[in-house]
Specification:
heterodimer, A: about 375 residues, 20 strands, globular, B: about 400 residues, Jelly Rolls, 2 domains, about 5% helix, elongated
């Protein structure tokens, strides 16, 4: 039987799952393309090392087998604040946002099994663009300013279990529900008071399912590997006023390895591949540009040799690169979008290890054609083991 | 938590807060690549045949309810203002515990009138003040007043300087002109005001219905002997005022009239396409009215012709929106004969809401404020072909949000 605290945590996480569309994301101007910006639902700890340790991290939802890293009832959440600078030729702007990309809960069941729930970002569709132009109405020139915006995206609610086959090998399995909505709006302001400003709103909701499976294996005292596989169903998008569309979602494969050259130092590398071209037909049917299959790569390290006031003070760092499936232009690939970033961070253990604060910073850029966006994201993660 | 770690956590949290408190996701559009595929498409069109029925009513406001009293000596309009003042006392109490004293000698009598507007081209403008019987009412006619507009009834002539364009005029009557009020009139004085100048002209003075007040009279007196060193002032304002005029307003048959006195108002019952009744997409809607003749009224006089939404269609006494924003106005001046354009976009948007869906699709053409002056516009009716009321509509086509 689950302990009372575990039940309470499960209840809180279930409640959070019910409000899954409220999970916020790291938005981008490039989210206007295709299905939006692909989420990176990592804990602050993993984000500090560029995501290289994601397949081994029980608090990140990439690999269900990694839940076996959770040895006691645990709850966690991540807060992020992003500052962005977008530029495309003479056009530029400074942007910023505050988000909560991940929270979850897990508890061991017996000695070998772990059960967990996570609520995380999957697709971000939050963006807003403003344009201005002169137009002729009733034989007069009027300046109009348009603001098109989208708020929301798709949230991934995962219910997962992991089983420790041995001290070296763990398996995991996850069921995913995709849910969320976007609130699209268009507004036009006229410089002439004779014209009434115009605004219109449309809401689109999303639903879908997926399954995932993963494995972690320790191959020796200095080497461990992990892999995960995820099969997504089709994403159903339904507008509030009736029209709907289904979009294919990708198969996702990831693999990673950790190498410990000396005690207290861990180095990791991970790579992933997503077949987002499966969305191309659905997007084309909706009159949008297509999508491409994408790779991602991350390398990072964690040094736990340092101590401060008697506690381990982990220092993390990493570099990551990824392709994004929805480029700019009329066809996918005409101006592909890619992203790279450097990461660093540290962790602070408190209350005799019952609570951990992880701080991280991730700075880099994403670009497609002449458009680019530099970003700096600060993460704060709180992990509580009551 | 230990203080050291607490301070580090606090510092990091403060750093985070500094970065995170900014919420701005709006960037300049880098079109077409980083802009939505949809475009806002504006349509501007003129919709004709929008009137399914119309009617005009006259007399909702009569001369006795006018805010301004016209004085005219025009070929097209002659008008005289009639004012009955309040009762003037014949005694007063010099002090709280004193005995009453009566009027012994009238030193002077003043009248104060307020000019609402005048014809500034008229020179040697004079306002003629005549005695009237104290008792008259709304039944007084132009013909009935004529016997009193004679030299024998003339109290005085108020001269108005050519540079004076509007405001209070204070005039002291010539000695003896108003000293005595007949006992039969019980302290009540009534006067008629007419206008004359070197040329045909007209002006208007404010009435008791006007916020500025109507004409006022003041008597400055000394007491009877032996207390004839005491002086006092009696002041009375207008208790009833109206005006009579000639010729009477022509009947409105082939036109829709609004404004003037007795005031005219017209109802337009409309039949509009669905695209014109929309709370979101109507950007601008202009009701275009074609005058059938130049606007009638006093020189330099103007008014706001308002197209107000009707809440309940009860003919001339229809309930109209009290909110002037639920409709639009256009300025009309005497002599205007060009097209009248009234913006009614807000009304159409109100009709497009759930609350406005049950409202009659009708507007009242009415002067704003009603009964304020003599200017009257007459516009073509719904069956007048190309001159009939029409709607110039600017709207947005439904935006193609698309899915996903």
């Amino acid at each position: 039987m689950m302990p009372r605290r575990a039940l309470l945590g499960a209840a809180l996480t279930a409640a959070a799952a019910l409000t899954a569309p409220a999970v916020a994301r790291a938005d981008s101007v490039f989210g206007i393309r295709g299905l939006g910006l692909i989420g990176r639902p990592f804990s602050a700890r993993v984000s500090s090392s560029a995501g290289a340790f994601a397949l081994f991290d029980g608090t990140s939802p990439l690999n269900p087998a990694s839940l076996t890293q959770v040895t006691t009832t645990t709850g966690w959440g991540t807060f992020s604040a992003t500052s962005r600078n977008f530029a495309d030729g003479p056009v530029s702007s400074a942007l910023g946002s505050t988000r909560f990309p991940l929270f979850g809960f897990a508890t061991p069941i017996g000695r070998r099994a772990v059960f967990g729930v996570t609520v995380s970002e999957y697709l971000d569709r939050t963006w807003a663009v403003t344009t201005s132009q002169d137009t002729t109405i009733r034989d007069s020139t009027v300046t109009v300013s348009d603001v098109a915006s989208s708020t929301g995206g798709v949230t991934d609610v995962r219910v997962a279990g992991a089983y420790r086959l041995s001290d070296a090998v763990s398996l995991g399995f996850g069921l995913h529900a995709l849910a969320g909505s976007t609130r699209l709006s268009i507004a036009r302001d006229f410089s002439a008071v004779a014209y009434s400003n115009y605004s219109e709103v449309a809401t689109t909701s999303y639903s879908g399912v997926a399954v995932s499976a993963g494995i972690t294996a320790r191959l020796g005292p200095r080497l461990a590997t992990a892999a995960s596989f995820r099969v997504n169903g089709r994403l159903k998008a339904t507008a509030l006023n009736g029209p709907s569309a289904t979009i294919g979602l990708p198969l996702e494969v990831s693999a990673a390895a950790i190498f410990v050259p000396v005690s207290g130092v861990g180095l990791a590398i991970s790579a992933g591949y997503q077949t987002w071209s499966s969305a191309q037909a659905g997007l084309a049917a909706a009159g949008q540009s297509g999508a491409r299959n994408v790779w991602n790569l991350a390398i990072g390290g964690e040094v736990t040799a340092l101590r401060w006031r008697g506690q381990v003070l982990p220092l993390r760092f990493g570099y990551r690169w990824r392709q994004l499936p929805f480029g700019i232009g009329t066809l996918a690939g005409s101006a592909p979008l890619s992203e790279h970033a450097l990461s660093a961070g540290l962790g602070l253990a408190m209350a005799s290890g019952r609570a951990t604060f992880d701080f991280g910073v991730d700075t880099g850029s994403r670009s497609a054609g002449s458009a680019s966006e530099r970003f700096t994201t600060v993460f704060v993660g709180l992990t509580v083991r009551p | 938590m230990r203080p050291g770690r607490l301070s580090i956590a606090a510092a990091l949290a403060a750093l985070l807060a500094g970065l995170g408190c900014r919420e701005n996701v709006t960037s300049p559009g880098s079109c077409p690549d980083l802009c939505p595929a949809g475009r806002v498409v504006l349509v501007d069109t003129v919709i004709t045949g929008i009137v399914i029925s119309d009617s005009t009513f006259r007399g909702y406001y009569g001369p006795a309810e006018a805010q301004d009293l016209p004085l005219a000596d025009l070929d097209s309009l002659r008008s005289v203002a009639l004012v009955r003042f309040g009762v003037r006392d014949s005694i007063w109490y010099p002090a709280t515990n004193d005995t009453a004293v009566g009027i012994g000698r009238v030193d002077s009598v003043q009248v104060r009138i307020t000019l609402a507007n005048r014809d500034t081209t008229a020179t040697h403008l004079r306002i003629l003040v005549y005695h009237l019987p104290a008792q008259f009412d709304t039944g007084m006619t132009w013909a009935a007043v004529q016997p009193y507009l004679t030299d024998s009834q003339l109290v005085d002539t108020i001269k108005v300087d050519s540079s004076f364009t509007g405001g209070d005029v204070l005039w002291t009557f010539k000695p003896g002109a108003m000293d005595v009020i007949p006992d039969s009139d019980a302290g009540v004085v009534a006067l008629a005001f007419a206008v004359t100048a070197d040329s045909r002209t007209g002006l208007s003075i404010t009435s008791v219905e006007n916020a500025l007040g109507g004409p006022r009279l003041g008597w400055f007196v000394h007491a009877k002997a032996p207390r004839d060193t005491l002086s006092h002032g009696f002041f009375v304002g207008s208790s009833f005022d109206t005006f009579v005029f000639d010729p009477p307003p022509p009947p409105v048959t082939n036109a829709l009239a609004a404004g003037g006195l007795p005031s005219a108002r017209s109802i337009l019952r409309l039949q509009l396409p669905a695209v014109a009744i929309d709370s979101v997409r109507v950007i601008r809607a202009t009701l275009i009215l074609t005058p059938t003749r130049p606007a009638r009224g006093l020189p330099k006089e103007s008014f706001l012709l308002s197209a107000r939404g009707i809440v309940r269609d009860l003919g001339p006494k229809s309930v109209i929106f009290t909110d002037t924003a639920a409709g639009g106005t256009a300025a009309v001046a005497t002599g205007d004969s060009s097209e009248i354009h009234i913006e009614i976009g807000r009304l159409l948007r109100a009709w497009g809401t759930v609350a406005g869906d049950s409202l009659p699709r009708a507007v009242m053409l009415v002067a704003e404020p009603e009964g304020a002056g003599m200017v009257e516009a007459a516009v073509a009716r719904g069956g007048a072909g190309a001159a009939a009321p029409r709607l110039r509509l600017t709207f947005v086509r439904p935006y193609p949000f698309g899915v996903p």
